[in-house]
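Q: I'm building a small set of examples for a reading group on sequence design. Run inverse folding on the following structure and report the sequence directly after it, with nothing in between.
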């Protein structure tokens, strides 16, 4: 039986490897990718997630755009000196052919956890705004994820 997983991420160079690993791992079923700000803006991280999934021929995996800014502090500058402006070392890759789904990241997390109670692992490797909003909207998912 495969482990159902949602990857909550801000894909820059580092998170690209996490996404590739999740897609390739034989015991992981990647239910979707939720994006957030962090290494880059949420718009860029969403584009990056879609690009990475397209690269590995998995465009059917849903990507849900999430938090754009922190809740409790002013946003910090993006670390473009590490990841480049595009998050991928300024490769300036063409835009991906697919789009993010219409659900927000928090809504997607809630939907999947309620659909598969006690089966979903949420791997949050970016800022935790999407998880915070999902818990604020549906606190009961804490016991189901």
């Amino acid at each position: 039986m495969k482990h159902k997983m949602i990857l909550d991420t801000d894909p820059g160079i580092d998170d690209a490897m996490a996404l590739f690993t999740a897609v390739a791992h034989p015991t992981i079923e990647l239910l979707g990718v939720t994006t957030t700000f962090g290494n880059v803006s949420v718009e860029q991280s969403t584009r990056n997630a879609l690009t990475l999934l397209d690269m590995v021929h998995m465009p059917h995996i849903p990507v849900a755009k999430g938090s754009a800014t922190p809740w409790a502090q002013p946003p910090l500058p993006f670390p473009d000196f590490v990841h480049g402006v595009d998050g991928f070392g300024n490769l300036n890759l063409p835009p991906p052919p697919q789009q993010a789904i219409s659900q927000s990241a928090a809504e997607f997390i809630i939907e999947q956890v309620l659909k598969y109670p006690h089966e979903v692992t949420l791997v949050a490797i970016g800022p935790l705004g999407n998880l915070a909003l999902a818990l604020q909207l549906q606190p009961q998912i804490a016991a189901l994820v």
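The chain has a mean pLDDT of 96.
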